Amino acid sequence: MTKKNICVLFGGKSAEHNISLRSAKNLIASINREHFNVYLIGITRKGHWIYRPDNRLLLDGEHPNQPVLNTEGIKVCLPPQCNGRLYSLEAPLKEEVVFDVVFPMLHGPLGEDGAIQGLLKVANVPFVGPDVLGAAVGMDKDVMKSLLTAAGLPIGKYRTFRSSDNIPAFDSIAGELGTPVYVKPANMGSSVGISKVDTASQWQPALEEAFKYDNKIVVEANINGKELECAVLGNAHPEASTVGEVSKEVDFYDYETKYLKSTVSKAIIPARIGEDALEAVRNTAVSAYKALQCEGLGRVDVFYTEEGEILVNEINTIPGFTNISMYPKLWKAVGLPTDQLIDKLVDLAISRHRRQAEVLEATR
């Protein structure tokens, strides 16, 4: 078996930079070295792409679970139609580096919203995860919810506002959505910029916090029910994993709870619901995945109410691969360890790339 050259792309300019580093560290450790030659590119907070032949890009940080990016290296790029060949922006590389596939382990804007997917597509190199459209609509919570509704999938009540809007007072929102509500940037993940609002005094600070990260926000009604997550894998014929349940000792799963105090939350696999409900969640996850034009991988998050109703919350098109992340855990629970999962994701990326190349060639 000939080894493939895989490039893991991580870091980035978004507020989810640190989560990307954590995901990348675990992903890199899980790649089967008998199948792949591994190359790393770290993107700094200023947007520079850094490459080191020794791959020494993830360094130990002050927090034991949070690596930091080594910014000492060669500035590089993947220009249009480079077919995976890496170019230096400084002195020429001593050895030619050509990637067979790129695994963008990037979270948030410029990494999960179609931007990097478009760049890699123009560079003509296969990449793991959704194409441009799937990434873009999966990132924008407002557009996502509109498409889910159009597909007939049930979601919770919400409102969307832009920074230029005259946003109603909290009493008006509470009368429409109830309390509490959750204020979120439309294009952000990892619980960044999210606030739980119970009272009028919390309303304006929550809006200001969310608008730090995006010019569009969503305000979601509270849903009483179990928080469930389902991993989906595939292109034209996606498959769902088992279902996981997020159990936590606090009522608001914010950034600190999720990543820095992981002992207050845990994943229960399979979720504590009946077999029929598990199957229904799996089917809903696949339907949402298709409706949102996703390919490669995605984690669909839903609420399961006491009445047995399934409400789709969102999709994560580049789910985390940290040591606490649900996506790899869900596949491992059904007999697919992370190294084999990576193999499948790479195969899906290359298969899509070949299919798209054939279409382009046929239409010239």
What is this structure's SSE topology?
Layout: E1 4-11, H1 17-30, E2 36-43, E3 49-51, E4 58-59, E5 68-69, E6 74-77, E7 87-88, E8 101-105, H2 115-122, H3 132-139, H4 141-150, E9 158-162, H5 170-177, E10 181-185, E11 195-197, H6 200-211, E12 216-221, E13 225-234, E14 239-248, H7 255-260, E15 265-268, H8 275-291, E16 296-305, E17 310-316, H9 326-333, H10 338-362
Parallel strand pairs: 1-2, 1-8
Antiparallel strand pairs: 2-3, 3-6, 4-5, 6-7, 9-12, 10-11, 10-12, 13-14, 13-16, 14-15, 16-17
Oligomer: single chain
Spatial sequence of strands, sheet with the most strands? 7-6-3-2-1-8
The CATH homologous superfamily name of the largest domain equals ATP-grasp fold, B domain
Order of helices and strands: EHEEEEEEEHHHEHEEHEEEHEHEEHH
CATH architecture annotation name of the largest domain: 2-Layer Sandwich
Helix/sheet category: alpha+beta
Number of strands: 17
Biggest β-sheet description: 6 strands, mixed
Q: Give the CATH class of the largest domain.
A: Alpha Beta
- The total count of helices amounts to 10
State the shape.
globular
Number of domains: 3
CATH fold title of the largest domain: D-amino Acid Aminotransferase, Chain A, domain 1
Q: Could you tell me the radius of gyration in angstroms?
A: 21 Å
Percent of residues in helical segments? 25-40%
How much of the residues is beta strand, in percent? Answer: 25-35%
The overall pLDDT average reads 93
Unreliable sequence segments = none
Distance between the termini: 34 Å
Give the key terms:
single chain, 364 residues, alpha+beta, Rossmann fold, D-amino Acid Aminotransferase, Chain A, domain 1, Dna Ligase, domain 1, six-stranded mixed β-sheet, 10 helices, 17 strands, 32% helix, 26% strand
